Amino acid sequence: MKGAIIFILDSPYLKGLQAFLYSLRYALYERIEDIVVLTNDKKIHDNDFVNLIADRIILLSDEDIGKLKEAKKDKVKKTKRIESVGKYTFLKFFVFSDLGYDYHLFFDVDMVCLNKNFRFKNMIGDYDFAGANATEHSYLEVNKSLKTTKKHRKYLFNKIKNDNTEVLRRLNSGVLFIGSKLINDDFVDKLINEVVENAYSLEQHVTFKLVKDSEAKIKNLPVFYNFTYLAAKVLGEKQFKRLSEDIIFLHYNRHKPWNLRNDWVYEIWHGVYNESLKYNFTELVKKEQNEY
Q1: What is the count of structural domains for the chain?
Q2: S-S: 64 plus which of 34, 60, 241, 274, CB 3.0-4.6 Å?
Q3: Which domain holds residue 281?
Q4: 38 exposure class (CB count in 10 Å sphere: 0-12, 13-18, 19+)
Q5: What CA–CA distance (Å, rounded) separates 9 from 22?
């Protein structure tokens, strides 16, 4: 089987891509998949770093994303995290496009990999779709009464450490496995038509709805595959460090870490990024690419 590791980004996410790839270097050494970058930003398409690490760069045209501009925006306007509905919010739908691969592994780039033992093969199995529950909803029960006392942090630590959740209830789409059943352009059209006809505040809501409606075989990845900033923040630095060997991906899904500092969770990202500045990324380029 031939697979693809897919990233979707525009220019402001370049630092995120560099830090994430560096944190993934041990897995990338052993990859058998192609790295594919999807973008509607020509600067990304022409960027030297992206061209170095990517096996394929696919530039989405205005025609490709044109219908997304018709997406209903009434719910989206209430969500401050979303900057542009038509241009960026629903671009993840194109991860389901038929690019000639048997499976896709998708990753947001506002993450770092904390586990040196992670390998891409760990995400592949006998299922059509895999993702992790949104940590803050599954574990932290985010609301105005959320407490961060020492007792509460200990409770959360034990709850996460002993996680045995098998059902994917509320998807965070930052880390995905997509099998061949769902890789087709018709499914992309269904996703786009859904947001044109109905209002959704986040692409992952419509994605998960249509994946379930397709009767796909779904796998729930452990929470450690998509451990969010808020989960780390609420746990506190001491408890987080106790879990850090288990956490595979730390996801900065609230605010982009390259824009913020003065917070121990953000400083983790900055430490990884600073190390990436010293790294020779040609080591991650496939052997056959080096031969050209």
Answers
A1: 1
A2: 60
A3: 3-290
A4: buried
A5: 17
**Spatial distance between the Cα atoms of 33 and 72, rounded to a whole number of angstroms:** 36
User: Of 172, 167, 57, 66, whose CA–CA distance to 110 is shortest?
Assistant: 172
Cα within 13 Å of Cα(3), Cβ side: 18
pTM of the model: 0.89
Per residue in 62-117, pLDDT tens? Answer: 888 877 777 765 555 444 434 444 445 788 999 999 999 999 999 999 999 999 99
The enclosing domain of 241 has a CATH number of: 3.90.550.10
| Beta carbons of 218 and 128 less than 8 angstroms apart | yes
Distance CA(256)–CA(219), nearest Å, equals: 28
Tokens of 218: 């779904």
